UniProtKB/TrEMBL annotation:
Record bears the keyword Signal: no
Keywords, ordered alphabetically: NAD, Oxidoreductase
Start and end residues of each Aldehyde dehydrogenase domain: 31-488
Protein family (similarity comment): Belongs to the aldehyde dehydrogenase family.
Protein name, UniProt field: aldehyde dehydrogenase (NAD(+))
Pfam families: Aldedh (PF00171)
Length: 509
């Protein structure tokens, strides 16, 4: 394993990329500077791919599709099995690069790579289970069935905060479903993308006969992404990022009748009921709200605590916020690492000011400067006691802020819970079966993820992942999310000597 303490982060990142066999020739001299949030230092300056280069990548992917779609799915699964093996071998290195580029703790960096390994395992099994149905037909001597076929080129656009896992959720599924991938990673995390490509290239080399350009990375920002979004040969655009980005991408893909999976922002809440196990709730809330420095789409951002337990739970939470360790994730065992950049810090401070103006009492939230380089942004997570769900509470600020509110009536707290734009993740802490079931029912949480006695973050890959409303409605990862990556055909076969028409229609000529 590379020990980043022994070298500057630029050198550490390149050492990892070299070891993985990535092409490091183009890391300098470009216009797209990339920084490590750990120290704020610049670690690369890559050239952005132009729209013409993206089009050329899609040309190559379209050619790869024509042969990959005819490879039997279990054989396609073999490539993903090899990818899983390569990821196991590269887990420490890739996890460390995630820490350098996204500022995650080593445990969270390694956890993200584990998620990649898990989705590969899932997809290998899936490669033998791309089932269709046989459906009862109303016509004698007929058979009706559903078949699933590869869809086409899949474009993946990803956010900085899960720089590698989101690619693997999409790519493992896309590959077994018979589709090539063109990936535009976040402009803030290009190096981990190059590392992933190198790891997949190793698997492809071992696989032997995969078509060229089955998986490609295009580097750049919004414009590079737009070239992917607008190309009609990109059958599916899977875009992960802010709701602002989704508002731009969704209509553009729809305008050309393309398919999209939108995985957008969250404003996730927890509800603590009178019967809750408060020790368990405390730990779950602390991880959900402060983990990854509040930079998960599933971070807990709102908390409703019943009047009867508020004074038992909230002072303990405030104490935990005061004592949580904040610091360099590579050189310390701190639980909370840096914000991604100065913009994130400014957005956090603006939200805290707005919360104060709306009557909130802020605990924490100050910048931590002890031993931190000036260009890095470390903050104490903030807990804000709010009189009501107003102002900044209604929006996602991508930073560690938890807004805490009291409630007394279960029915109205569910209404409050659902009264925000986003609909990603939610949780309830209760040992009362009625409350738990009501929360999970049709009139309960309106989110794509609803948990009981677990925080809002840290989903497993086996379930479909995604959310409703302004979170975009997309689903990826487990369950039957694979269906979005395939073309469904309904086939009816007449093996009789007659031609009965459906619905009893008569048309005798
Ligand atoms: P962002 O929206 O700034 O950028 C995300 C990606 O979209 C980047 O690759 C960016 O270059 C690209 N992009 C932006 N505008 C585009 C456009 N018009 N056309 C094409 N591409 C465009 O998000 P971020 O700051 O990197 O990530 C944080 C956000 O992502 C948060 O809102 C978080 O909740 C969300 N997120 C959601 C999920 C999820 O699964 N729901 C997962 C991770 C992050």
């Amino acid at each position: 394993m590379i020990d980043a303490r022994d070298m500057d982060l630029k050198t550490a990142a390149r050492t990892v990329l070299d070891r993985l066999g990535a092409d490091t020739a183009a890391l300098d001299g470009g216009s797209m500077a990339s920084f490590s949030p750990v120290t704020g230092e610049q670690i690369a300056a890559l050239a952005e791919h132009s729209a013409a280069e993206v089009t050329a990548a899609i040309d190559r992917a379209a050619a790869a599709f024509r042969s990959w779609r005819n490879v039997p799915a279990p054989r396609r699964g073999e490539l993903v099995r090899l990818l899983g093996e390569e990821l196991r071998a590269a887990k420490d290195d890739l996890g460390r690069l995630v820490s350098i580029e996204a500022g995650k703790s080593p445990s969270e960096g390694a956890g993200e790579v584990q998620e990649m390994i898990d989705i590969c395992d899932f997809a290998v099994g899936l490669s033998r289970q791309l089932y269709g149905l046989t459906i009862a037909t109303e016509r004698p001597g007929h058979r009706m069935m559903e078949t699933w076929h590869p869809l086409g080129v899949v474009g993946v656009i990803s956010a900085f905060n899960f720089p590698v896992a989101v690619w693997s959720w999409n790519t493992a599924l896309a590959l077994v479903c018979g589709n090539p991938v063109v990936w535009k990673p976040s402009e803030k995390t290009p190096l981990t993308a190059l590392a992933c490509q190198a790891i997949l290239d190793r698997a492809i080399a071992r696989f032997g006969d995969a078509p060229a350009a089955l998986s490609q990375v295009v580097i750049g920002g919004r414009e590079t992404g737009e070239a992917l979004v607008d190309d009609p040969r990109v059958a599916l655009v899977s875009a992960t990022g802010s709701t602002r980005m989704g508002r731009q991408v969704g209509p553009r893909v729809a305008a050309r009748f393309g398919r999209s999976i939108l995985e957008l922002g969250g404003n996730n809440a927890g509800i603590v009921c009178p019967s809750a196990d408060l020790d368990m709730a405390l730990r779950a809330i602390a991880f959900g709200a402060m983990g990854t420095a509040g930079q998960r789409c599933t971070t807990m951002r709102r908390l409703f605590v019943h009047d009867g337990v508020y004074d038992q739970l909230v002072p303990r939470l405030i104490k935990a916020y005061g004592s949580v360790s904040v610091g360099n994730p590579l050189t310390s065992r701190a639980l909370v690492g840096p914000l991604v950049d100065g913009q994130a810090f400014a957005a956090m401070q603006a939200a805290l000011e707005a919360a104060k103006a709306a009557g909130g009492t802020v605990h924490g939230g100050a910048r931590v400067t002890d031993a931190a380089p000036e260009a890095a942004f470390y903050v104490k997570p903030a807990l804000v006691e709010m009189p009501a769900q107003t102002g900044p509470v209604l929006e996602e600020t991508f930073a560690p802020i938890l807004y805490v509110m009291r409630y007394s009536d279960f029915g109205s707290v569910i209404e409050q819970h659902n009264a925000v734009g986003a609909g990603l993740s939610s949780s309830i802490f209760t040992t009362d079966l009625r409350e738990s079931e009501a929360f999970l029912s049709a009139s309960g949480s309106d989110c794509g993820i609803a948990n009981v006695n677990i925080g809002t973050s840290g989903a497993e890959i086996g379930g479909a992942f995604g959310g409703e409303k302004e979170t975009g409605g997309g689903r990826e990862s487990g369950s039957d999310a694979w269906k979005a990556y395939m073309r469904r055909a309904t086939n009816t076969i007449n093996y009789s000597r007659d031609l009965p028409l459906a619905q009893g229609v008569v048309f005798d000529i």
